[in-house]
Amino acid sequence: MTASQWSKAAAVALLLFALFQSFIMMGQTVGAYTERHNALDRIERRVSLDLGYLDVGNQTLNTPVNDAAVLRYLSRINGYLYEQDYPLYLNQIQHVSIDNQTAHEWSSTMLMKLQTAEQQIIIGLTMKPLYASLSLHPLAILAALIMAPILVGVKPRTRSKKAALKDIPPPPEPKLFIDLNTKSIGNGVDGRAILMQNKPFCFYTALVRYCIENPDANLPQNKDVPQELINLANRVFLRLIELGHTKRKKPDFNANLDKTLSEIRAALDETFEPFLAEKEKYYPPRAQGEGSRSKQHSFALPPITEEDIVVIGK
To answer: Keywords on this record (predicted)?
Structure first.
């Protein structure tokens, strides 16, 4: 642990000790109060029973208190209370009291009045104050020392987990990969590479480039392919020859356009099978309906940018 961690642990340990010790002292105070209350009840019952045999005089008959007998009784009962570890002792019955020097821890006094049929008996008691029962408890120290390092160590681990989660790169987003070296297309996520024939591969590669450069292009299927798009397709075909993929003559990219687009869509369906939403960005729209009206639809791609594609081997 570093110096700062040690200081944190010490501060936490002190706070925990203060908290645990406070709860323990509350329990000690409640326990001492309960013990004192029970002791008073037992002493009251015991003295009440003993008064029938103790010569404490009689105010009605005007007889005096037998001081010697009362002192002997006080000595005897206090000996019993001391043996039983009572938190109090008797120091007076009527006017007869024990001439003892009260210790500091026995500084609390009270008078108890017992009513008999003939007179009222005054009983004096000396007790330990409630705070005398308070003491440091080793469990408070032990618990604080055990829990402080745990609590100090939780936050760094939590921060390290959060930092680790931040360091995890986000999953790659699928995009169109066009690889001239292998004459294939892929999605850049699951490693699949779909091989294509020369004509649809060249035409689609050119179509992607054309739609990036002309985002508002309209390419009706019932009209000739724009010359700019044909030139791009021818350029891709020449690159395939340079890479050794073919020695054939250039295909006619205007001929059998429906078949070419169908082969392109089939390759894209297989490439983006797990990513249907992303596929729409690269998919030449299909004709809707039948007849001449369907031929007028545009097979131009939705708006795409350079960031949406990766071309390898160009």
So the answer is: Membrane, Transmembrane, Transmembrane helix
Asked whether the beta carbons of 301 and 204 are under 8 A apart, the reply is no
Alpha carbon distances (Å) from 242 to 12, 204, 235, 247, 314: 73, 19, 11, 9, 11
Give me 236's structure tokens: 């891709």
Look up residue 89 and give its DSSP letter: E
Two tokens at 311?
Answer: 């071309």
The span from the CA of 208 to the CA of 302, in Å, is 10
Pairing of strands 120-127, 184-186: unpaired
DSSP 307: G
Give yes or no for a contact between 313 and 295, defined as CB atoms under 8 angstroms apart.
no
Give bridge partners of residue 58 from the DSSP assignment: 63
Q: Which two tokens stand for residue 301?
A: 């791609």
CA distance between the termini of the chain:
56
pLDDT (tens, 9 = 90+) of the chain, 314 residues, equals 567 767 777 887 788 888 888 888 898 888 888 988 898 899 888 888 888 888 888 777 788 888 898 899 999 998 988 888 888 888 888 888 886 655 556 667 888 888 877 788 888 888 888 877 778 888 878 877 777 777 776 554 555 566 556 667 777 889 999 999 999 999 988 888 999 999 999 999 999 999 999 988 899 888 889 999 999 999 999 999 988 887 778 889 988 899 999 999 999 999 999 999 889 999 998 876 555 445 567 899 998 999 999 999 88
If DSSP codes are grouped into helix, strand and coil, which group holds residue 300? coil
